[in-house]
Specification:
It is a multi-pass membrane protein. By secondary structure, the chain is of the alpha+beta class. It is built from eleven helices and twelve strands. Helix 6 packs antiparallel against helix 11.
Length: about 375
């Protein structure tokens, strides 16, 4: 009877499942809906930061795709393709010839992103006056400039007048609507020259929707949503790197101060008290002013202003752990000092340090953003 009971107890003991500490923590973690939701948000932010070049509608650092004319657009505004442009230099000769009813018109220069046959320009003397010309501008059938959006007459001889349109207050430019450009009267001044020259600048065509500015644009024409995605990469990398480095330095110094005590403890903790007596933002600004601009300098400034907090926390926890029996047992076994500190005291200090490091990541992001603006 006793043998059966022992065998049953032994079988129960053998079949009992051993749960690792990691599995126990995981089970406890996933029991909290708030913790799971926070983890999902964190993973989404990290994934967006990593895949920013792939999912961003626009590269905010590529000046080739940024147009300052798209600045300060409201959320939901579309980005349209550029209009086709054409600039023709017109030369009218024979102004001084009496009785000439028709002078020659020659496009002597062309510039723009379409061919000169995209538009038809007809110039004829008006009422037999060599200084008055009827001008007709219309797009051709190739469709590059159809429909016309803007028509400007630039560099007209001083004193010239148009029957329609509006002259710019500061520059020698007459702005016409496509309807006005279909037929207008150009009056040239009676100067001593025999040739009248000016330039016709046109834009038109069908615009295509390239993208949508879901969050609008800034004053430089950069997509705000893309700026957030790309900004996540820099903010997270700088914050995480600075926190890890500051945590490492502060933890080592705090553990050494608690374990060795005496002058070592006094020296390290007085440095900690001195640094914590000044505002964090003030120290960071002074360091950045000395070191200069740059991502590495911002990271270095964050490390210098953060290590003291980890050093004081690690020292406080390590002082408590140092008096416990397992540390004395390790010392009696003849273990080296680095092994006692790193293998026995440090693991029991990590929970408090991890909590503080998690909170300091948000503070590092805020401080990094402040330093970037300033």
């Amino acid at each position: 009877m006793n043998a059966r009971k022992k065998s049953e107890v032994g079988s129960d003991t053998l079949t009992a499942e051993t749960i690792s500490p990691f599995r126990d923590v995981r089970q406890q973690y996933f029991k909290s809906p708030v913790a799971v939701a926070a983890l999902c948000v964190l993973l989404a932010i990290v994934i967006i930061a990593i895949t920013a070049p792939l999912i961003s509608p626009q590269d905010p650092y590529d000046l080739r795709v940024i147009d300052i004319k798209d600045g300060r657009l409201k959320p939901g505004s579309p980005k349209l393709s550029k209009l086709a442009t054409l600039s023709l230099k017109i030369s009218i000769s024979g102004l001084k010839q009496v009785g000439v009813s028709k002078a020659s018109v020659t496009p002597t220069d062309r510039s723009g992103d379409t061919s000169s046959d995209a538009v038809q320009i007809i110039l004829e003397p008006h009422a037999g006056n060599p200084y008055q010309w009827s001008v007709k501008v219309s797009p051709t059938a190739n469709g590059h400039l159809d429909p016309l959006q803007t028509v400007n007459l630039e560099r007209l001889p001083k004193g010239s007048k148009l029957s329609v349109g509006k002259k710019d207050k500061f520059r020698n430019i007459w702005r016409l609507s496509p309807k006005d450009a279909q037929e207008l009267i150009l009056t040239l001044p009676k100067t001593s020259t025999d040739v009248g020259r000016f330039r016709v600048v046109m834009s038109g065509g069908t615009q295509k929707k390239l993208m949508t500015y879901w969050l609008g644009t800034d004053d430089q024409g950069r997509d705000m949503l893309s700026g957030i995605f790309y900004g996540l990469r820099i903010s997270l990398s700088v914050a995480l790197s600075s926190v890890v480095i500051a945590l490492t330095i502060g933890t080592i110094l705090g553990l050494c101060a608690a374990y060795y005590g005496g002058r070592t403890d006094t020296l390290i903790m007085r440095l900690v008290d001195l640094q914590l007596s000044f505002p964090t933002i003030l120290i960071a600004l002074i360091l950045l002013a000395i070191l200069g601009k740059g991502v590495f300098n911002v990271m270095l400034a964050l490390v210098i202003v953060q290590w003291a907090l980890y050093a004081r926390t690690a020292r406080g926890v390590a002082l408590t752990e140092r008096r416990k029996e397992y540390v004395e047992s390790a010392q009696c076994l003849g273990l080296s000092t680095p092994r006692v500190i790193l293998a026995h005291i440090l693991p029991n200090c990590l929970p408090s340090l991890i909590v503080i490091a998690t909170l300091e990541v948000a503070g590092a992001i805020s401080l990094e953003a402040t330093l970037s603006f300033l």
